[in-house]
Amino acid sequence: MVSQPEIPDPQTRVERPSENELVVIRSFRAPVHLVYRAWADPALFRQWWIPRSCGMTLVSCEMDVRVGGTYRLEIGHVSMDQPMTFFGTYLEVEPDRRIVWTNEESAEGAVTTVSFAERAGGTDVTISNLFPSAEALEQELASGACDGTAESLRQLNELLQG
User: Fold this and answer.
1) Handedness of CA 62, 125, 143, 11 (dihedral sign)
2) Engineered SS bond to 40: which of 14, 65, 128, 135, CB 3.0-4.6 Å?
3) Cβ-contact 56, 152 below 8 angstroms
4) Which CATH code fits 12-161?
């Protein structure tokens, strides 16, 4: 049996359906088209993606959200000489329904699928990260990524409610 990660946020659910997959689920009281836009529009994305508590900033945010398009995010911190760079390619894009992209900054990068489902006037967002191995997922969990994701999603909720 695969252990389920714990996350200190009652609004965010984390599941580990297999040894190399991590799923994060959160509901928002906003229409699906607005939630999708917050993921697909770089000007909105940069307002919520980086957890404020980590003291980092999104130095650069380039996103061409279409099949075959690419993204490149540079994240900086005063203690870093060079920003961390995250990049990949969009594999699937269905407006208001689904975005799938690669995480190509390392050989251990996941394929991320974000699904948007309208429900009772709100939107359920499911983020699935499929890693190439159980070890790669364990490294991600050890980095505190679940806490950061939960905080980012809280910030997204604030943006949507603002």
Assistant:
1) positive
2) 65
3) no
4) 3.30.530.20
